[in-house]
C-alpha cells in the first residue's frame, strides 16, 4: 500500500510474496498444475496461430521451481529478478491476447460516477485472478478474490494510470522485446505502442519484485537465513539484510511521497 494504490498491483505483491516457497515439496502439486497449464496454453496457441511464446515463458516458471532446492535459487536476488521478469512478460502478453475481445467492455466503476474501465485493465484483472488462484494459499483465496474484485469495480480509474511510472527500463525493454522478436521471428506486440509496453512492464514488474523481496526479508529473519547471491555464492544473510531492506523501502516510500504525491502509482 505504500507504493501501490490499485488492486492489480497490490494483488501482484501478494502473488509475488506467495511464490518463492513453490520450491518446497508441499507445493509440488501447484507446480505440476502450472506445468500442465503452460503446456496446454502452448499447444492451443500454437494450433490457433497465436503468439505461443507466452506458453513457453509460463512453462519456464514452474520448471525453475521444480529444479530448485528449498530456499535456493528462488530465494536469491537473481532468482526473484528472473521470476518477476518472466511473470511480467506473461501478464503483458496475456493482456494482448485477451484485449481484443474486451475492447468495448464498460462497467460501473464508482457508485456516484460512471467511468469506462479500459479493456486492458479487465484483461490484466483476468490474468491476475488466474495467477492468484494458482499461487495463493487455499485458505486465503476466497477473501483475495472478493477484495480484488471489489477493488476493480469500485476504485476510481485514476488509480490505474500506466503513465506515472518510471522510464528507467525503457531502453532495456526495447532491447528485450526486439531481441525476442528477432530470435523467434514472432512479433509479440503488433499494433501496440512500445512505450506502453515499457510502462506496463514496470507497472507489473515492480509489485511482483517487491512481493518476492518481502518474502526474502521474512525468511532472512529465521535462523536458517537465505543464500541471497546464489548461484554465485552460498553465503547466507540474516537479520542485517532484513533491516537494510526495510530501511531502503522506507526511504523509497518517503522519496515517492515527496516526488509523486500528486500522482497515483
From TrEMBL:
Keywords, alphabetical: Membrane, Transmembrane, Transmembrane helix
Segments crossing the lipid bilayer: 6-22, 34-65, 77-102, 114-134, 140-163, 175-196, 202-221, 241-259
Record InterPro entries: YdjM-like
Signal peptide (from-to): none
Origin: domain of life: Archaea
Name by which UniProt lists this protein: Membrane-bound metal-dependent hydrolase
Amino acid at each position: 500500500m505504500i507504493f501501490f494504490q490499485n488492486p492489480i498491483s497490490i494483488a501482484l505483491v501478494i502473488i509475488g510474496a506467495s511464490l518463492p516457497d513453490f520450491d518446497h515439496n508441499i507445493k509440488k502439486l501447484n507446480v505440476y498444475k502450472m506445468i500442465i497449464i503452460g503446456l496446454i496454453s502452448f499447444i492451443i496457441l500454437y494450433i490457433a496461430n497465436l503468439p505461443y511464446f507466452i506458453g513457453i515463458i509460463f512453462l519456464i516458471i514452474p520448471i525453475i521451481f521444480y529444479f530448485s532446492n528449498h530456499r535456493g535459487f528462488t530465494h536469491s536476488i537473481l532468482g526473484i529478478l528472473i521470476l518477476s521478469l518472466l511473470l511480467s512478460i506473461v501478464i503483458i502478453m496475456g493482456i494482448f491476447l485477451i484485449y481484443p475481445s474486451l475492447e468495448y467492455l464498460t462497467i460501473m466503476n464508482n457508485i456516484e460516477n460512471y467511468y469506462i474501465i479500459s479493456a486492458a485493465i479487465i484483461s490484466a484483472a483476468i490474468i491476475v485472478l488466474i495467477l492468484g488462484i494458482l499461487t495463493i494459499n487455499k485458505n486465503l483465496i476466497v477473501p483475495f478474490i472478493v477484495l480484488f474484485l471489489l477493488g476493480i469495480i469500485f476504485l476510481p480509474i485514476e488509480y490505474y494510470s500506466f503513465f506515472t511510472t518510471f522510464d528507467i527500463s525503457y531502453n532495456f525493454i526495447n532491447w528485450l522485446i526486439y531481441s525476442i522478436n528477432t530470435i523467434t521471428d514472432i512479433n509479440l506486440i503488433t499494433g501496440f505502442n512500445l512505450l506502453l509496453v515499457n510502462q506496463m512492464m514496470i507497472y507489473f514488474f515492480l509489485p511482483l519484485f517487491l512481493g518476492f523481496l518481502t518474502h526474502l526479508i521474512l525468511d532472512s529473519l529465521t535462523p536458517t537465513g537465505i543464500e541471497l547471491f546464489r548461484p554465485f555464492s552460498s553465503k547466507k544473510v540474516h537479520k542485517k539484510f532484513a533491516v537494510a531492506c526495510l530501511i531502503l523501502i522506507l526511504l523509497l516510500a518517503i522519496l515517492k511521497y515527496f516526488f509523486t504525491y500528486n500522482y497515483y502509482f
